[in-house]
Amino acid sequence: MKKSVQLVVTGASVLALAVGCASTDEPEPTGNSGSADGFPVTVDHRFGETVIDTEPTRVVTIGFNEQDFALALGVKPVATRGNLSYDYRQRPWAQEALGGTEIPEVGSTDLNLEQIAAQAPDLILGPYSFIDQGQYDQLSGMAPTIADIGGYENVPAATWQQEFAVVGEALGKQQEAQDQTATLEQKFADTEAENPQFTGKSLSLAFVMDDGSYLLLGRDDIRALFFTDLGFEIPDASETISPENLDRLDTDVLVIAGQSREQLQANPIIAALDVVQQDRTVYIGSFSTDLPSALGYSSPLSLDYAIDGFTPMLAAATDDDPSTVVPDA
After folding, report:
1. Which pTM does this prediction carry?
2. Do 60 and 119 form a contact (C-beta atoms < 8 A)?
């Protein structure tokens, strides 16, 4: 569990979970009161099963991306978990769904259980929250609570499709979630079909850490799974790469965050890699910018945005023409 928490906290800068929108009004509860077709529902998660008897009207999202999944289904949480260095309230992919609403926070690095209780929730969503058993026990005493659905013990990281299905079921919006999933999957497929050179190419997604090491992300991290949906091949597991082993990043394509192009190329080991010299590298810059954060959210809203943002850069990096300059994010 410690490794998984490290990956998420490291990604909190990228991830996106500040201050920003014009309105400071608390959002009105959404959804219909009373019973609705499809309820009760039972959702499996890390700590067992949660039964949701009726359609929720006061939803609190306690994880690192759940707010986006609810917003995609037309549900504005009454409170949410904040995040660190990214100004997540201004994230471009969610502005239309937010409609100017500023959702109150119930903690960021740490959850504030008293603030959550004060919202009188009837559903607490945390399928990507990395809460522990003690937190779950306290939260589930307030309202039906969904804990993590992947990324713990021997359970692989949940895909965005799996998380969307769980959120859709919990909110009584299964069909809407299925329809939006199909639409986004088609956009991924269309983008890969339009760029057949993506298919089968090896790709490294790396983050430069404060201590000078490099975090190479694999299939156990939702941020890297974005590239598999476009046809790229990535490592099976995430790992930390020491400065003397940077040749591990010399794959067909390198996508790197945490430093600028100039900062990275000032490192002679990085500058000497073929993937850098042949301009097959996509520089996405600071963790506080939109594209790295879109990967962190890995939601139906942010992934649609990420496809549009990454595709021109990835296309330039894979055109087998070293003279093509890959645009920066």
Report:
1. 0.88
2. yes
